[in-house]
Here is the input.
Amino acid sequence: MKEYLIKSGSEVDLSKWDPDDKRLCPEGKIEGLKSLLEINHDLEMLQELLYAENKHRVLIILQAMDTAGKDGTIRHVFDGVNPQGVRVASFKQPTAEELAHDYLWRVHKQTPGTGQITIFNRSHYEDVLVVRVHSLVPKEVWSRRYEHINNFERLLADEGTTILKFYLHIDADEQKERLQSRLDEPDKRWKFDPGDLKERALWPKYIKAYEDVLSKTSTPWAPWYIIPANRKWYRNLLVGKIIVETLKGLNMSYPEVSFDPAKITIE
Ligand code: AMP
Ligand code: MG
Here is the structure.
């Protein structure tokens, strides 16, 4: 999966990343969906192990333009996983109380505890994305945040949190189609937010802001992956695979028990 990993310190130009890419599954959708079933199964077992071992913490960060599929990715990748060990934290416009604190205050509280997986649906990266694009704070303020973020994630990693960050990459044509289908299909209409059109008009500014995020904050302790996301099945498969490979790499084991089961008789 190294193909999709941003090496620390490299400059990202998103126009060079193909949102239609499917090179790890050239056979296509049917094969991709079959593989996702296996991934779902592996993830279910690994999450159980993570919970039982109670040693590691896992943080998964999802960022993307509107309609790129943050919600769909969570739904499909974590299908079947025990809800007790997985939590989703969604970051919306900050409340008055949140705005009265530094921007990481609300984020730190939501990070995973031991044995848990937490998925961030949006994150502290909004504070250098929407906040930058709309000039909600001056440049002197947001431009210092990349360094804070790297240090904050370093703290989490040093204290035992494994961090994976996914940017779901779609293009403007794909977004147009998805917004249109939210208008056309009655059961999707609730998802349509007229405000999304204003954000869409700012597409180039968002891309620039994302390029800076990906260039400045992909670190050895908290790497970014760019996920081609025009095809939903490929997006899900890739995110699932990367999470499974990472969890396997933790070399987890079930905890030793302090008794000899052979010596115990249950009357
Ligand atoms: P959604 O994820 O579609 O429910 O929308 C959540 C909205 O909250 C998006 O428009 C985000 O850009 C916005 N949002 C999230 N975090 C922040 C933040 N720190 N400052 C301003 N807006 C934010
Ligand atoms: Mg929205």
Summary: The first strand starts at residue 57 and ends at 64.
